[in-house]
Design brief:
Length: 176
């Protein structure tokens, strides 16, 4: 009964952050697809403000999550070949990247519309000048990347369910 004790699960805080971000994203997509269409001269009101606030909160949570990812203890490796482990590693890295870049692009677009983005009521700086082409372009990219992110999430969820129901290993349980 001696020897190193394997860390069998992600730690509670890592699990909390994972499922918190899942809930925030579900809410964010519902809001994004329910809010009024955004055109030149649209005023930031109602659900649009909810989208901005929720998005700013997602960035804040992701900053904490990236820091936690760097300082936490990693759980032990479950199974798989170097290839499948590599795919999982790259997919998770891509998800982290998208979860930061996607809201930043939305923020830059909001700034180019002259909208004030806030976090807990505190004004955040503009990420692009009002009326800027770059802010406009990043808004187009923001709409496209919402779909890119959804596809990557779909692959990720399919992999998790495949592990649980077909491979019957602990991969899903260690995040649950
Ligand atoms: C991960 C977080 C986010 C997701 C998943 C997301 C998702 C989306 C989606 C799906 C749309 C398109 C809505 C439509 O087709 O009508 C959209 C539009 C938009 N979002 Fe986000 N968003 C996020 C974060 C943010 C943040 C942080 C901001 C600003 C602070 C923001 C500002 C905007 C703006 C201004 C638009 C309109 C863009 C345009 O049509 O030019 N978003 N968002
Ligand atoms: C919004 C959707 C989701 C996003 C953005 C997301 C993102 C991530 C990220 C970035 C990781 C890496 C964790 C880390 O090392 O810090 C991860 C791990 C994991 N996720 Fe998700 N996830 C989502 C939804 C789900 C769902 C719905 C499930 C279950 C059906 C799931 C199951 C897992 C599992 C089991 C792991 C651990 C994988 C491993 O141990 O190798 N995720 N997720």
């Amino acid at each position: 009964m001696s020897g190193p004790v394997a860390v069998s699960k992600y730690d509670p805080f890592a699990r909390l952050l994972h499922w918190l971000v899942v809930l925030l994203l579900i809410a964010q997509y519902i809001v994004a697809w329910t809010m009024p269409g955004i055109h030149r001269g649209t005023r930031p009101e109602g659900l649009i403000v909810v989208h901005l606030d929720l998005g700013a909160f997602i960035i804040a949570v992701m900053i904490v999550r990236v820091i936690w990812r760097m300082v936490r203890k990693e759980p032990d490796v479950v199974d798989g070949t170097p290839f499948t482990r590599g795919v999982a590693y790259l997919t998770h890295g891509l998800l982290y990247l998208l979860l930061i870049v996607q809201p930043l692009m939305g923020w830059a677009n909001a700034s180019s519309r002259g909208w004030q983005v806030t976090l807990f009521g505190i004004d955040l700086p503009a990420l692009s000048p009002k009326g800027s082409t770059i802010g406009h372009t990043l808004g187009d990219a923001h709409r496209v990347f919402a779909w890119v992110m959804l596809v990557v999430i779909g692959l990720h969820v399919a992999a998790a369910l495949y592990h649980h129901f077909f491979l019957r290993d602990r991969v899903l349980r260690r995040m649950a």
